[in-house]
Amino acid sequence: MKTIAPGRKRLVNNIITYGMVIAAFVILQVLNAGGMLSPSLQGQLVPICAYVTMAISLNLVVGISGELSLGHAGFMSVGAFSGVVANLSLQSVLPSGPVRLLVAMVIGAILAGIAGTIVGVPVLRLRGDYLAIVTLAFGEIIKNIINILYIGVDENGIHFSTQNEMALNLAEGGKAILKGPMGVTANVKLSTFTAGFILVLIALTVVLNLVNSRSGRAIMALRDNRIAAESVGIGATKFKLTAFVTSAVLAGAAGALYAMNYSSLAAKKFDFNTSILILVFVVLGGLGNIRGSIIAAALLYVLPELLRDFYDYRMLIYAIVLILVMLATNSPFFRDLKGRFQEWLRERAMAKADAKAKGGKGHE
Amino acid sequence: MKMNRALSLALAGALGLSLLAGCGGGSTSTPAPAETGSAETTPAETGSASGVIKIGGIGPLTGSAAVYGLATKQGAEVAVNEINALGGLQFELDFQDDEGDAEKAVNAYNALIGDGAQIIYGCTTTTPCVAVAAETNAARYFQLTPSASSTDVTAGRDNVFQVCFTDPNQGITAANYIKDNGLGTKVAVIYNNGDAYSTGIYNAFQAQADEIGLEIVSVTTFPDDTNTDFTVQLGEAQKAGADLVFLPIYYTPTSLILNQAKTMDYAPVFFGCDGMDGILDLEGFDTSLAEGLMLMTPFNAWGEDERTVTFVTEYQEAYGGIPNQFAADGYDCMYAIYEACQAAGITADMSAQDICEALIAQFTAADFSVDGLTGTGMTWSTSGEVSKAPVVVKVEGGVYVTQ
Smaller CB count within 10 Å for chain A: N or C? Predict the structure, then answer.
């Protein structure tokens, strides 16, 4: 009774994470219904959900699986553009917005998963810095492919071209959806905060369950000591690929949600900088710490918008805050404080347990 | 160790403060939306208090497109100062950064309407502008863009208007001008196929050239404005015997192309579009390289009419440097809004939605035209596109000479 059983501790931890997300959703919905949210914050809700999902999914690769991936925006991009194409080409077949959003997100997730498998199979044979560089390159390749891709739809189906809009040979009444570097310019917005919230919950469930499963333990064993893990019969490729593809699938769904929140979208958006931005969320939230990623993604997304009042100094202050957070979370002082707080909690819990035990005896 | 503790305490304090400052900014802006929420019943309290119409500007002030965003911001500020000095209707311009990104532009737009903006001025670049246009169209805010030149910006949206030429319009005009003036018989095109502006102009140029029988002998591309080597593209144009090279691109790559063409001893006529304006003001650029360069730009900073001279002087006093066409477009935007507001009798206490409908009616009215720096007698069609005469200038002796 001295320490809490690890299984129970994990359960408590997970409940706190779920509870936090649900509470945030309920509070924001109530505030929104009461007209208490500024238009600025209202507009940020959907992208926050998308970035939170991205951070959760990247944490699976970087934190849990221990592989540095610098091309995560590439999977988001695949999900985003396939989602948009699905959305616009199914417009007449599926008039219901939420259903089409769901279909678009599923298609985005599947295609991103396929891209993840294609990238993952060769890439996961590499380790460390090599893997980082190759994922970076794959992210750029995905961006450049979408940048030259033209997709249109007419009554005969979907047309592809890498030349120009004319080469699509669209029949009368057909429309070009993706126009190379111009990207998508006539998207129909479907995303809602509720959809984003559900996606975050799904991502959370998938990742937390994976981490706490047999596969998850195998993935973490591979991260901590690959040789030892392989010596007891854990296949490195299989488990690393599981984590990588799961992460890509979630990123694809997040990309579709993100894309459906804007009426225009260009491939340029999903470049190296976006990958790094998500990596910053993950690193600041703590590697392997899912709850931390969620908080970091939400706060760091809102921060630059809150700083709009500072005009020219906005991004400078943002950068300083990033550095300070990084220093603060790593300083011995804060670690000490955190340790003492946890100790205090434990002592309190023990005192309570003792009192209960005594009370119980008293009754006997 | 003690030092370390003190330092981390100080850092923690600073962090806490900055977070609080952030929260403070958030909470002060929270009441504003409630006001806008009730704006339907009590129109824009913030505006009526001081009798000032709030214009919300959006454009890139940081990132790779910052130079264009800053120009549109500064040009507009010059105009706002002039307008406010006239007395009468007063403007207040709140210009927010969008980093040239659709997502940030929508965030900036939401922040602006939260602060009570009544008219939206922007965005500077196309992709963000399309995203914001969808929002303004749904919420009924009047939007005027200085430089987002794609037809996608205005397509299907009655509340969005442009002051610049559209990309296809530029491509068609360029092809016609080259053909009509016999500038070249064999044309080579070098364009940026990773850029919406460049691709948009090229597509229209190619289509028009095919139609009027202008021979295009070589089409080469480059993927990004950060490209530094164009010898392959130039070599291909030279090999194909092109006597005119059409460059629908921005001025930074152009400066390199001109330089590399010179080292190759290749001297065709170079012909550019409005994105090339600003090349003479580029730091470290030898302007003698641009001698003979022709470009279509709506604005000539060396023009001798009184308004241009005044604008250029005021701009130089305030910000230094020679204003480019982005600044002039921004200046014209403010005057277009000003004149439309005067003609339609718009006052600061009207709601954004009422202002929007009144301005749409005014801009599309048959008798409404604006004289600006980038054109005289500018009128607007119901599609939101501007109609003004294109101007072609040639660089002679380091300045533009209107052709």
Answer: C
